[in-house]
Amino acid sequence: MGLTRGSTGLGAVDTGLLIQRLAESDRVFALAGNPNVGKSTVFNALTGMNQHTGNWPGKTVATAQGRCLRRGRGMVFVDLPGTYSLLAHSAEEEAARDFLCFGGGDGAVVVCDATCLERNLNLVLQVLEITPRIVVCVNLLDEAARKGIQVDLEGLERSLGVPVAGTSARSGRGLEGMLCRLEQMAGQPAPGRPLGVVYPQVIEDGVSLLVPALRPAVGERLNLRWLALRLLEGDESLSRALCAYLGEDILQRPAVAEALAAAKNLLSQHGWGQRELEEAMVGAIVATAESVAAGVVCAPAQGPSEGDRRLDRLFTSRRTGIPVMLLLLAAVFWLTITGANYPSQLLSTGLFALGDWLTQGLAALGCPQWLLSPLMDGAYRVLAWVVAVMLPPMAIFFPLFTLLEDFGYLPRVAFNLDRCFQCARACGKQSLTMMMGFGCNAAGVVGCRIIDSPRERLIAIITNSFVPCNGRFPTLILLLTIFFIGGGEGFWPSVLSALGLTGVIVLGVGATLLVSRILSATILRGMPSAFALELPPYRRPQIVPVLVRSVLDRTLFVLGRAAAVAAPAGLVIWLMANITLGEATLLHHCAAFLDPFARLLGMDGLILLAFILGFPANEIVVPIIIMSYLSAGSLMELESTAQLHALLVQNGWTWATAGSVILFSLMHWPCSTTCLTIRKETGSWKWTAVSLLVPTLGGMLLCFLFTAAVRLLGLV
Questions:
Q1: Percentage of the chain with pLDDT > 70?
Q2: CATH class in words for 27-187
């Protein structure tokens, strides 16, 4: 079921995006819209589980495709990135624009929010300039009704000159009617004449000069008026995409070059520079949207609901915004910690029991011991450990995080932290990518795609590992519990562990801001860019879609990458623990070499080596330490925290040692999964190396200063 690699692509998809079609008769439709208009809800309601996700070729922008069957004919929907504009100021805008222009689809659905239709019409008008084959989906009619907002759908259809359908996608209301309008539109040989934006006369004159020159080169493949406007605007990203689509650079044609020069000269004669041109174009679109909305929207003269205002006073005020954010963060950690303990133990027991069964089976089949031991005691045991430790916390944390996102709280967090990141000369959106890093730093790095500025995106990527992921949570919680809280089970120890973890994370956030400021003043100089932050209305989260999206898109994605590197790491760890030189293993030889330097950081050689061997997955750091102290040949765990505490103290640990390990766990090199993700997102080994070195050097410096201060003050 669903979409497969074997599906055929769209004939001339010059965007390079493979359209997953199950039959040649399938029609392809783009799904466009602003962020927070319910576009994903519409997409999920139409396509169900028949979805395929990936990346836009050449862009760090996610794409999703889905298929539904209607009257025996497939309809493939391509979910375009949420964007406010098609003027290509970001990778998301480029991806949406390129597919609408060059994707070769049968039409588009533009999803609008009925509660703020005027703003959404800006995008509708821009899409209409590219293609008239669209259906406008006015979504969230139920939410608009609760706010006393009425939209004249028939009047909107008359004004725009294209089909309009009203929906409430959460309940499924109106989707059938929208599909009917979409089928009717796709079946028409020629669309009608939709509403067009009228620009100032000097711009229209410039367009009139360009269009005749473009027609021989482009023909009917693109809207010539829209293309002329973009060429006047000087959109370089469009020039590149256009060259790839047409197979030639039309600006090299003498007729086109002369016409473009004449049009720009005309603008210059009237005192129109690039800035004046862009402002006039945007102003004309906004004015047209205002005019259309004024004729079809009836709304009471009031702002947000009283409930929304009360919640905003709680979540965004200077007095309560940050404290409430920290309390919610602590609550999420507490739920993750307490909820993951039992399933993690159950999963560990089951996977290790399966390992024993597999070992017996392979032995019975005649597998030699020299292969069996490294395979099962090395590769499989580390893999099982990573899965058992990572899966339950992620399966809890990511849904909780997504529920807060669906509720509308996360943009409020960005609002609260924007001032801090602005002071660090970074982007306020970095707060969102930082929070994604709590679940997994690799997911946080992927989330940096939402930051438009390349400079600020790099800062966010480099500093993302300063916040601990749930792979480091076990180490942090364990050491906080046995050395600073006092151990024990029950409600209050778990609460204190969550609060202690929150305190450590606040330290990581502080380090993120400090390092971001240093990077902005050195290798990534620049001032923070301005961005528009929309605070969406509070909405009741959808539980089932949240669970599905969190598990499939985030949890399994991260777990799969971690598992891919865990098994090879298990082989290396087994070899080092079992190959001897003289009277000591390779593990202890390496630890002895590292020991003098590790002592400067408040640790010993075995601890530092455990962090190095834990590079594939931070979850195995403590098990490696236990294995090393017990001189065992494979990873193992102790039955209780009391036993672990006794073992660590026996090997010279103090509260200061635990403090150094906590600090180094908070700030050290990102794991291999995160490094691979950084390489993929940046396309550069240089920035991958910088992302590895910056937290490592920062962590070493912090541990050195902490250890020196403790020894100087005689606290141990």
A1: 89
A2: alpha beta
Q: How many CA atoms lie within 13 A of 90 on its CB side?
A: 20
- Which pLDDT value is given to residue 223? 85
Average pLDDT over residues 454-479: 88
DSSP string covering 351-383, please? HHHHHHHHHHHHHHTT--HHHHHIIIIIIIHHH
φ, ψ for residue 65, nearest 5 deg: -125, 150
Q: Determine contact, residues 275/210, Cβ cutoff 8 Å.
A: no
**Contact (CB, 8 A) for 212 and 219:** no
Nearest of 50, 75, 96 to residue 176 by alpha carbon: 75
pLDDT of residue 665 exceeding 90: yes
The string over 43-60, giving b where at least 16 C-beta atoms fall within 10 Å of a residue's C-beta and e elsewhere, is bbbbbeebbbeebbeebb
Q: H or E element: which one contains 97?
A: helix 91-102
Check the CA dihedral 596-597-601-605 and report its sign: negative
CA atoms within 13 A of residue 388's CA, in its CB half-sphere: 23
Q: Give residue-wise pLDDT tens across range 43-73.
A: 888 887 555 444 444 444 556 788 888 887 8
Tokens of 132: 């008239």
**Extents of the domains making up the chain:** 27-187, 201-272, 321-712
Three-point CA angle 421, 425, 429, nearest 5°:
45
CA dihedral 566, 568, 574, 579 (to 10 degrees): -150
Question: Where on the phi/psi map is residue 556: left (φ > 0), alpha (ψ -120 to 50), or beta?
Answer: alpha
Query: What are the Cα distances from residue 1, in Å, to 31, 50, 553, 626?
Result: 22, 7, 18, 46
Q: Kind of pairing, strands 134-139 and 73-79?
A: unpaired
Largest Cα span, the chain: 89
Phi, psi of 139 (to 5 degrees): -95, 170
Mean pLDDT value of segment 91-107: 78
Phi first, then psi, for residue 439 (nearest 5°) are: -75, -50
SS3 285: helix
| 139 strand-pairing partners | 113
Find out whether 217 and 242 touch, Cβ atoms under 8 Å.
no
CA distance 652 to 637: 19
Is the distance from CB of 100 to CB of 109 less than 8 angstroms?
Answer: no
Contact 497, 475 (CB under 8 A): no
Whether residue 43 contacts residue 60, with contact meaning beta carbons closer than 8 Å, is answered with: no
| Six token digits for residue 232 | 């006047």
Give the integer Cα–Cα distance in Å for 642 and 220.
76
Is 50 exceeded by the pLDDT of residue 298? yes
Sheet holding 107-113, edge to edge: 51-55, 62-70, 73-79, 27-33, 107-113, 134-139, 164-166
CA–CA gap between residue 28 and residue 278 (Å, rounded) = 32
Residue 702 tokens, joined: 């912090």
Place of tokens 């739920």: 335
Phi first, then psi: what are they for 609, rounded to 5°?
-65, -35
Tokens 């480091």 belong to residue: 472
Residue whose tokens read 């050097």: 697
Q: How many helices (H) and strands (E) does the chain have?
A: 30, 11
Three-state secondary structure string covering 564-589: HHHHHHHHHHHHHHHCEECCEEHHHH
In sequence order, what are the residues at sequence separation of 6 or more whose Cβ sits closer than 8 angstroms to the Cβ of residue 368? none
Map residue 636 onto helix, strand or coil: coil
Three-state DSSP at 21 gives strand
User: What are φ and ψ of residue 242, in 5° steps?
Assistant: -65, -40
- Residue 335 has a CB neighbour count (10 Å cut-off) of 15
User: What's the pTM value of the predicted model, to 2 decimals?
Assistant: 0.69
Helix (H) or strand (E) run with residue 323 in it:
helix 321-364
Residue with tokens 């590197």: 565
